[in-house]
Amino acid sequence: MKVIHKTYRFRIFPNKEQEVLLNKHFGCSRFVYNYFLNERKEQYQKDKKSDNYYAQAIET
């Protein structure tokens, strides 16, 4: 049986206030992602092994 997935694309036009809030939100998300990515890289260089998402989430 074939499964058909539908997608929808929307274009948003935020006003200046919403644009500032979106930039802050994505900036914070980028910071958190890069912080934990760096943590994994350092751990891998040190131990040749790194935690997955679930192990990092428990520690934090």
Question: How would you portray this structure in words?
Answer:
The chain has 60 residues and is an all-alpha fold. It has one domain (16-59). Helix content is 65%, strand content 0%. It starts with 15 loop residues before the first helix and ends with a helix.
Keywords:
single chain, 0% strand, mainly alpha, 60 residues
Question: Biggest sheet, in brief?
Answer: none
Give the overall form.
Answer: flat
Distance between the termini: 43 Å
The count of strands amounts to 0
Overall residue-averaged pLDDT value: 93
Number of domains: 1
User: Total number of helical segments?
Assistant: 2
Q: What is the chain-wise order of helices and strands?
A: HH
Q: Please estimate the helix content.
A: 55-70%
- Over all CA atoms, what is the radius of gyration? 18 Å
Low-confidence stretches: none
Strand-pairing-aware structural class: mainly alpha
- Note the beta-strand portion: under 5%
List the helices and strands and how they pair.
Blueprint: H1 16-47, H2 53-59
